[in-house]
Design a protein that fits this description.
With about 140 residues, the chain is mainly alpha-helical. It has one domain. The protein is built from four helices and no strands. The chain starts with 5 loop residues before the first helix and ends with a helix.
Length: about 140
């Protein structure tokens, strides 16, 4: 494995997080708290692995920037997606940590209230993470 493999692996981790989040959501809606906790824990692990891989890629690339080569109307679409993804990813980390903390402490009403915000933001960040990868490396690869 090389540094150039990390974006694909990271996109897979984001995709896996999305699936795990959906499974966790379904489980809590069915009243299966233990299964919900297991899926959400797995989502947290895949997100953490993504973050480690993302940072390893950025550090390993030593300042080499990936530029978006798309032209025309797709550029503002991509950069809007990237901006919202990046800002919400930063906002989401403390939300996730607090939501998990509340669950671990058994403060389920507070957990539920915060999770109503955390879940959609986490889903958006996971899905758009895959889209950013597709834009950069599959749909509009650098020549």
């Amino acid at each position: 494995m090389t540094l150039s493999d990390l974006p694909f692996i990271n996109a897979c981790l984001n995709g896996a997080t999305t699936v795990l989040l959906i499974c966790g959501y379904i489980q809590i809606k069915r009243g299966r708290q233990q299964a919900h906790g297991m899926f959400m824990s797995a989502a947290f692990i895949t997100s953490t692995l993504f973050l480690v891989g993302y940072l390893a890629h950025k550090i390993g690339m030593k300042g080499i920037h990936t530029t978006f080569p798309g032209q025309g109307w797709i550029r503002p679409v991509y950069f809007t997606l990237l901006l919202t993804h990046s800002v919400l990813a930063v906002v989401n980390l403390p939300l996730i940590l607090r939501t998990i903390y509340l669950a671990i402490r058994g403060r389920y009403e507070e957990h539920k209230r915060l999770a109503r915000w955390t879940f959609p933001v986490w889903m958006y960040v996971s899905v758009t993470g895959v889209l950013v990868y597709l834009f950069l490396y599959r749909w509009f690869p650098a020549a």
